[in-house]
């Protein structure tokens, strides 16, 4: 599970994340939503131990990311918004490398299964430079899932994926959650993640506006937005300047 | 070390081989690499030949010792001043920062993965420096170890800066840089005063004998001793001592308990952005700075017809990118000093009225400037698809893309000529000055269009780092050689036309014939550029 307490991240006088606290339990798929500049990527990167937090604590499966980084990161998988691969390494070599870094034994059957699911088996010997963006994204997914992390972070994971790729990724995420992993993903495609996520975290300017399940989200804003409102309607209502945003932030 | 990092180090070496193999499979990649290799062999051959035939007596060890120490110090100081947190490529940030790896393992990985590229650079420099060493073979270990020393010392300095900077109160850390500038200025002024009082040579000699400079040169001493060694035993002994220093510094790097993640992320992103701009042909110095948002009185360029909007856009980019203009000014200064100032300074008696030098300046400056001043297709290589989608003829696009660069170079060229004439207080040969002014504009146009034509034909993004050095050198040589030959051919054709025109008519006829030939050459170069733009294969040549 992922536990975040009073996470704050400041950059040269600007506060990107301001005192966020929340928990993602095993089996939960949390959607992190917010407008551009809300601090979503910074939050995910701080949880992954890439950005050291200015204040606050992040724990992965009970291990503090800053104090016990090796133990915490061993249980963590990250899929970034822009898949950056080693250009001259093949798909298979990326998996080989990942298995070695995370100390995964007997990784080959699992890697082949992942490649088959992600329709990358035929490209296993292609260099990353030769892959399309969508394929590179799938390689990043395969690498993040290879060590079967207990916490999985995905930053805008749908960008570049075709509909079949999105469906495959959803299947993989649901399965990982069903196996007990805590999954957290950010996305701008609110309509698409509405059916996937079991709970939502709405942020704006680094501050938490709402955290709860889809039903709780609807129930809380039903009077203001209407009972048939989509997540997108509520999102706009919450994140645009107005009394809703001010009230939620308060 | 984590097994994954060991694997990654090996994969990096394999990857270089794969990249080279893939480049060699294309004709232009093969040609670039082959010329680069030939150049390397040529340098090596000339060094060997000079060692065998021209070296009568070896250099004096004391002079070599001091010279090498000074050179190393001159490289060391800026390396330490500019040192920053360790650099990581974006894919390394993605895979390694979120992975269960210790900071020390990451530092060791950066030292090893970058260090062997430094060894290659050192080998190359060592080959070039063989003639200057007392024992030629000593140059290789001396330079390789010195380059490694610079690299590891800079890594250590970057971490020390982080460690100290984190602990300093912010007013103090903000005052460090201005204080360093003030100290540098005071020292520079003191040296200048010494030069005025004693003359340049004695002042430099006194400077190097001063206790401060001698102390500063101490770390460079063992490397200089290798370079100046007279026996094999001395080479081995001083090499071992130098290697010990490098290893000790590397040990200090690994022992530093500094959280470099934040700073590395920022500085690496900045540096990667600069590298990406350079790879895309946008130039590192010329356009890496953030643009300045200001209102500009840009003309409509209506005389360019359909290509005018493209030229206006380039003019806006040029006007708001201060460093691009700075780069042009720098290259203008270089050409001026090299062609006009140095020959007159070195041989004042032979320096008469300016004539041929003006014509040479008119040709040399555009040839030099077009290499780094890239407000044209090279800047827009990612927008070729967009440019193709515009309802414009390829010739209009070509003219619109290169006009501003050619105009800026031509204006700078004419200004340079005016400064030269002003400097000699009117002591110029009138006809040559007129010829220089007449060729300034067409030469600028030809140089820019040919540079862009070559870029669109050979858009391989190679840069001058260790892995692709031979291809980079090859490409630069091809470009300079071709542009010079093409301009020479146009000059010969114009000269023949002038002869013919003069024979058939009078001086006016000769000039008209030459102008027609030059105009035809400019039109032809533009047509070729338009064809290359049309033929640019987006599937093959588009960047990553």
Description:
By secondary structure, chain A is α/β, with parallel strands linked by helices. Chain A has 10 helices and 10 strands. Chain A has helices at 40-47, 69-74, 91-102, 108-117, 133-145, 163-178, 190-194, 214-225, 231-239, 243-249; strands at residues 2-11, 14-24, 29-33, 55-60, 63-64, 76-79, 151-155, 182-186, 199-204, 207-213. In chain A, helix 8 packs across helix 9. By secondary structure, chain B is mainly alpha-helical. The A-B interface holds A 48-52, 69-74, 76, 78, 80, 82-89, 93, 96-103, 127, 129, 140, 143 and B 2-8, 11, 14-16, 18-19, 89-91, 93-102, 259, 261-262, 265, 544.
Distance between the termini of chain B: 32 Å
Physical arrangement of strands within the biggest beta sheet of chain A: 6-7-8-3-9-10
Category by helix and strand content of chain A: alpha/beta
Number of strands of chain A: 10
Report mean pLDDT of chain B, rounded to a whole number.
Answer: 80
**What is the count of structural domains of chain B?**
3
- Sketch the topology of chain A as an H/E string, one letter per element: EEEHEEHEHHHEHEHEEHHH
What's the structural blueprint in terms of helices and strands?
The complex is a heterodimer of chains A (250) and B (544).
Chain A: E1 2-11, E2 14-24, E3 29-33, H1 40-47, E4 55-60, E5 63-64, H2 69-74, E6 76-79, H3 91-102, H4 108-117, H5 133-145, E7 151-155, H6 163-178, E8 182-186, H7 190-194, E9 199-204, E10 207-213, H8 214-225, H9 231-239, H10 243-249
Parallel strand pairs in A: 3-8, 3-9, 6-7, 7-8
Antiparallel strand pairs in A: 1-2, 1-4, 4-5, 9-10
Helix pairs in contact in A: 3-5, 8-9
Chain B: H1 3-24, H2 27-54, H3 61-81, H4 90-97, H5 103-128, H6 139-167, H7 170-198, H8 200-209, H9 211-217, H10 221-228, H11 232-255, H12 261-279, H13 284-287, H14 308-320, H15 322-346, H16 356-372, H17 384-389, H18 394-423, H19 430-457, H20 469-504, H21 507-535, H22 538-541
């Amino acid at each position: 599970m992922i536990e975040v307490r009073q996470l704050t991240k400041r950059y040269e006088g600007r506060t990107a994340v301001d005192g966020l606290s929340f928990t993602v339990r095993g089996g939960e798929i949390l959607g992190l939503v917010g407008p551009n500049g809300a601090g979503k990527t910074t939050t995910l990167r701080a949880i992954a131990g890439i950005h050291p937090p200015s204040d606050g604590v992040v724990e992965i499966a009970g291990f503090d990311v800053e104090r016990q980084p090796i133990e915490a990161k061993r249980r963590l998988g990250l899929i970034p918004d822009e898949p950056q691969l080693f250009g001259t390494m093949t798909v298979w070599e990326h998996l080989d490398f990942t298995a070695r870094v995370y100390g995964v034994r007997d990784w080959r059957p699992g890697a082949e299964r992942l490649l088959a699911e992600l329709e990358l088996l035929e490209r296993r010997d292609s260099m990353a430079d030769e892959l399309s963006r969508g394929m590179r994204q799938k390689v990043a997914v395969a690498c993040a899932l290879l060590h079967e992390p207990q916490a999985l972070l995905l930053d805008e994971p749908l960008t570049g994926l075709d509909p079949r790729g999105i469906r495959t990724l959803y299947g993989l995420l649901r399965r990982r959650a069903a196996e007990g992993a805590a999954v957290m993903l950010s996305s701008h495609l609110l309509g698409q993640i509405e059916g996937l996520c079991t709970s939502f975290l709405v942020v704006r300017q680094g501050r938490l506006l709402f955290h709860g399940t889809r039903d709780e989200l609807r129930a809380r804003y039903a009077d203001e937005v209407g009972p048939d409102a989509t997540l997108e309607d509520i999102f706009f209502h919450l994140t645009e300047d107005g009394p809703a945003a001010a009230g939620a932030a308060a | 070390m984590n097994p994954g990092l060991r694997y990654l180090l090996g994969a990096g070496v394999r990857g270089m081989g794969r990249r080279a193999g893939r480049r060699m499979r294309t004709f232009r990649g093969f040609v670039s690499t082959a010329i680069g290799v030939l150049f390397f062999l040529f340098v090596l051959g000339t060094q060997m030949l000079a060692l065998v035939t021209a070296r009568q007596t070896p250099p004096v060890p004391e002079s070599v010792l001091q010279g090498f120490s000074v050179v190393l110090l001159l490289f060391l100081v800026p390396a330490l001043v500019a040192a920053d947190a360790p650099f990581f490529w974006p894919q390394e940030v993605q895979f390694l920062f979120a992975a269960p790896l210790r900071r020390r393992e990451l530092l060791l990985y950066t030292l090893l993965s970058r260090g062997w590229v430094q060894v290659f650079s050192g080998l190359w420099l060592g080959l070039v420096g063989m003639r200057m060493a007392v024992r030629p073979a000593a140059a290789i270990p001396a330079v390789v170890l010195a380059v490694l020393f610079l690299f590891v010392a800079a890594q250590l300095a970057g971490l020390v800066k982080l460690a100290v900077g984190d602990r300093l109160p912010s007013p103090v850390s903000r005052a460090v840089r201005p204080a360093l500038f003030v100290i540098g200025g005071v020292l520079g002024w003191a040296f200048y005063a010494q030069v005025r009082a004693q003359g340049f040579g004695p002042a430099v000699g006194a400077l190097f004998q001063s206790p401060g400079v001698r102390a500063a040169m101490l770390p460079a001493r063992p490397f200089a001793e290798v370079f100046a060694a007279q026996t094999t035993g001395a080479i081995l002994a001083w090499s071992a001592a130098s290697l010990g220093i490098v290893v000790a510094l590397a040990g200090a790097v690994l022992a530093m308990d500094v959280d470099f993640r934040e700073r590395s992320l920022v500085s690496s992103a900045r540096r990667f952005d600069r590298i990406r701009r350079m790879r895309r042909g946008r130039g590192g110095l010329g356009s890496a700075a953030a643009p300045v948002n200001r209102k500009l009185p840009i003309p409509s360029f209506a005389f360019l017809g359909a290509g005018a909007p493209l030229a206006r856009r380039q003019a806006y980019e040029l006007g708001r990118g201060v460093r691009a203009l700075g780069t042009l000014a720098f290259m203008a200064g270089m050409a001026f000093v090299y062609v006009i100032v140095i020959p007159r300074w070195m041989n004042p008696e032979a320096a008469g009225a300016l004539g041929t030098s003006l014509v040479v300046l008119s040709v040399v400056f555009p040839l030099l400037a077009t290499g780094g001043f890239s407000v044209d297709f090279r800047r827009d290589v990612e927008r070729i698809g967009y440019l193709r989608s515009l309802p414009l003829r390829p010739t209009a696009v070509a003219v619109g893309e290169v006009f501003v660069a050619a105009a800026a170079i031509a204006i700078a060229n004419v200004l340079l000529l005016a400064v030269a004439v002003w400097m000699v207080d009117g002591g110029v040969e009138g006809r040559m000055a007129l010829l220089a002014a007449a060729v300034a504009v067409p030469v600028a146009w030809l140089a820019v269009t040919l540079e862009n034509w070559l870029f669109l034909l050979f858009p391989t993004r190679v840069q001058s780092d260790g892995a692709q050095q031979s291809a980079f050198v090859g490409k630069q040589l091809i470009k300079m050689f071709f542009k010079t030959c093409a301009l020479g051919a146009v000059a010969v054709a114009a000269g023949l036309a002038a002869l013919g025109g003069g024979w058939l008519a009078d001086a006016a006829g000769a000039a008209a014939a030459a102008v027609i030939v030059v105009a035809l050459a400019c039109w032809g170069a533009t047509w070729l550029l338009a064809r290359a733009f049309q033929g640019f294969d987006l599937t093959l040549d588009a960047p990553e």
